[in-house]
Structure formats: structure tokens, C-alpha cells
Amino acid sequence: MEITGALVATLSKKAKENRQIIVDVFKGGGHFGGSFSCTDILTVLYNSVMNVDPANPKWEGRDYFILSKGHANGALATVLATRGFYSCEQLETFNCLDSPFGEHPTQKMPGVEIPTGSLGHGLSIGVGIALSLKLDKKDSKVYVLMGDGELHEGQVWEAMQAAPKWGLDNLIAIVDRNRLSMDGPTESVSMPLEPLVDKWSSFNWAVKTVDGHDVRALLEVSSAIPFRTGSPSVIIANTVKGKGVSFMEGDYNWHYGLLNEETRRQALSEIAEAR
């Protein structure tokens, strides 16, 4: 992958456009905080990193993506639409009765591998898919986007132990490290996560940290995958919950919220003006 200024500019613009679409997708309310914190990550993955075919979502040679933090489906549904898996107009039914698009992903959405929502399951599923690909001698990769709040689930740590045992260097975990859960800071509402890099490393994962809102940095770290032959990789992406909207940024109360017309206009304006 050649990382050019033009590519960085294009992806940065697309991430901004995706955030603007998310505002309208959530017209009836939605998980703004966690969707905005991972918008840049998803935009980079689907538009420059992963091998996918929007015209053939079940293409056998595809890379696999699991949104373990399923409540960020507003961001995933938007990124899939702007990538061409379906039209943006279809998102107008988001979270409506009988719509394929809801607050959490299901396989009714083209491009979704597995329904998610119960936090902590995604990495275990990713381990299974990655092991299957290894046994079948396929080159596809498996990307699992996790919230840092779900690292409080014990099943995550069991999956972390399993992946190195099988040498799954085709498995990439990405931690959306916005440091906030729906109840408050991750370091105080439950068991502290830090030192997080050391913990993943002690489980024999190859670890890199990155600014999760820096498109160039995301491209650079993705181009280095796998970070170590024979080991699973984890990207700890430092992010801001509610990124792009001043009254949402760093406020766990915007884990889920509803905009009125005034705050909607403000959100769209701030996203448009962001650098």
C-alpha cells in the first residue's frame, strides 16, 4: 500500500462525510459516542485496508470483519453504505420496524458476518474464523473491532490466550480505546485496564498503539500487519468518545443520545468545520 497525501486527504474527507451521515441515521436516537470514536478506523479499514467486494459480500477470498462492539452499528452501517454494499437511502429506515438496519448488526445487512451486541463475544468468534482459515490454508485476514469497556468481560481474556496458541497471525484485534463505557471511565467503573499494552503483550500478542483519529497513522500501522510472524496482532487505537462534536466529546452520557434540531445543526456544523 502506497500511503500518499492524496489518499490520506480522501479518507479523511470520507470519514467526515460518514460522521455527517451518522447524525441523520440517528434521527431517532443512537449510540453517538462509540460510533464517532471508531468512524475513522472503519473508514480506513473498508476503503483502503481490507480485501472486500461490495458487489459480492460473501466472496470466498474476502477479509472478515467483526464489530464486537455491536452498539456502534450506526457507524458500520454508514461505512458499508458509502463503500457500496447498499445505498445510503436504505439507511433512512435505520432502527425502524422490519428494517435490516438496527442499533446492532445482524446478517440482514450485506457485509455483516455475525450478529453482535452481547459484549465480549467478538474476539472468540474471530479466533474461530482465523483458525478455520489457517486450516484451509487461506490468506484472508480477520479484523475484530472491540470497545475497551468490553475488555472487562472474562471471555475476552480467554480468547486472548487461545489465539497465540494456534499462531493466528491472520487475526487482528483493534481496541477502540476511548476510555469510557456507558457508566463512566473504564479505569474506575470496573477493574482497571492499564497497563493495557503490557497485558496484551504478556498474552503473547504483538502490540502497536496508534492515534485512532489519525488517518495516516492508521494506514501505516495497518500496512505493518502482521506485526510479528506467528503471533496475532492488536492495535490499541487511542480515541475520543463522541469525536467531532464538542458537546459529545469525552462525555459518557453520549454513549446513547437523541439530538433536537438545534443540537443536530450544531453537530453537523462542527463536523463540517473539523480539520
Topology:
Blueprint: H1 5-25, H2 32-37, H3 39-49, E1 64-67, H4 73-83, H5 122-135, E2 142-147, H6 154-165, E3 171-177, E4 180-181, E5 184-185, H7 186-189, H8 196-202, E6 206-211, H9 215-223, E7 233-238, H10 261-273
Parallel strand pairs: 1-2, 2-3, 3-7, 6-7
Antiparallel strand pairs: 4-5
Helix pairs in contact: 1-3, 1-4, 1-10, 3-4, 3-9, 5-6
Could you characterize the architecture of this molecule?
It is a single chain. The protein has 275 residues and is an alpha/beta fold. It contains ten helices and seven strands. It has a single domain (5-273), classed as Rossmann fold, CATH 3.40.50. The chain has helices spanning 5-25, 32-37, 39-49, 73-83, 122-135, 154-165, 186-189, 196-202, 215-223, 261-273; strands at residues 64-67, 142-147, 171-177, 180-181, 184-185, 206-211, 233-238. The strands form two sheets. Strands 1-2-3-7-6 form a five-stranded parallel β-sheet, with helices on both faces. It has a two-stranded antiparallel ribbon with strand order 4-5. Helix 6 (154-165) links the parallel strand 2 and strand 3. The model has no long low-confidence stretch (mean pLDDT 97).
